[in-house]
Amino acid sequence: MIIRRQTRELCIGTVRIGNNNPVAVQSMTNTDTRDVAVTLAQIERLTAAGCELVRVAVPDLEAATALRAIRDAISIPLIADIHFDSRLAVAAMENGAQAIRINPGNLGGSDKLARVVAAAKLHRVPIRVGVNSGSIEKDLLKTYGYPTPENPQSLIESALRNIRLIENLGFQEMKISIKSSDVLTTVNSYQMLSSLTDYPLHLGVTEAGGLIAGTVKSSVALGILLSQGIGDTFRISLTRDPVEEIRVAFELLRSLKIRERGPELISCPTCGRTRIDLFSLAEKVEQYVQTMKTPLKVAVMGCAVNGPGEAREADIGIAGGHGVGIIFKKGEVYKKVPEEELLEVFLAELQAMENERQKS
Predict the structure, then answer these.
(1) Which residues have a Cβ under 8 Å from the Cβ of 272 and sit 6 or more positions away?
(2) 131 close to 156: Cβ distance less than 8 angstroms
(3) Segment (H or E) for 336
(4) Alpha carbons 158 and 180: distance in angstroms, whole number
């Protein structure tokens, strides 16, 4: 059983994080924020996939101004990502950003940070203090060295220094992230930081890579931390469609039995007995179950001989054959279907099962 580390509670829009609230799943758009229609379309897809907090880049005043139209059209909290320019942070909050992500050390000095914090107080907007390995202050690097798994001290000191700067301005509505592209540096940094502060922590591995590398690195680092009760929000960072980040995030939470959303898909790796295009079949079923919310266990198996037995714990499953396939429930054959109709019939059965579960 995972025992959550106790942190302060923080509200970002309607989402409560920290304390005993569920670990929240976050992503970031990769659209041009100034293109409101395109950005809204991506946020709609992210929301449908289960995204609970969304961050957008704010590179200029036009993007900051666009936040108003975006905020008014979405149902999940909107976070503005700010770098270097304090004016953009203030403008983002004036235009409806419900949280901002900044590195206080790169805003250009204490006066500019004070203006940002004053705006955060006025608009009641939480601040995420985000520090990456590549953005650590030079004096800290000189004192502690570049962060490594054995010595992540410069990363931690940078975060704590910036937290203190904001605290000294009378503001405490914060969460912290300290990201590295190295898995063990990320793990050790968050473990150490979690023992030094009770602010909520946002987890992530920065610059993790594409679908395979990014999923592995993020799952290893965040899986270790979440299993230790560390982390209040997180993002799986992938060089992919951000909807893929949400899919990976919920599978990670499910594997740790922290949260469930929608069906769990199990499928066999194929072998010489497979006589259908199982890869394509599994992908289409996986795409479909992403639209479902009922926590079913769904199986896609390669052969009708072993499929039902190997996946007898599945609520419903499909197994291919030569010209004909079967649909099974709890290991028992439910119906036989011609191969060309197998996917269509199976998806209809999935929908019927979800409708039935939602009624009960």
Answers:
(1) none
(2) no
(3) strand 332-338
(4) 13
What are 34-84's pLDDT values in tens digits? 999 999 999 999 999 899 999 999 999 999 999 999 999 999 999 999 988
Run of H or E including 150: none
The answer to whether residues 233 and 259 touch, using CB atoms and an 8 Å cutoff, is no
307 closest CA partner among 296, 289, 295, 321: 321
163-213: per-residue pLDDT in tens? 999 999 999 999 999 989 999 999 999 999 999 999 999 999 988 889 899
Q: Which domains does the chain have, with CATH numbers?
A: 10-255 (3.20.20.20), 264-359 (3.30.413.10)
Name the pTM for this structure: 0.89
Sheet holding 324-329, edge to edge: 264-267, 297-301, 316-319, 324-329, 332-338
Q: How far apart are CA 198 and CA 227, in angstroms?
A: 18
DSSP 3-state of 2: coil
CB 27 within 8 Å of CB 235: yes
Angstrom distances, CA of residue 203 to CA of 22, 43, 193, 307, 349 = 14, 21, 12, 38, 38
Cα distance between the two ends of the chain: 29
Residue 24, H or E segment: strand 24-28
Other beta carbons less than 10 A from residue 109's beta carbon: 9
Nearest CA among 40, 159, 167 for reference residue 101? 159
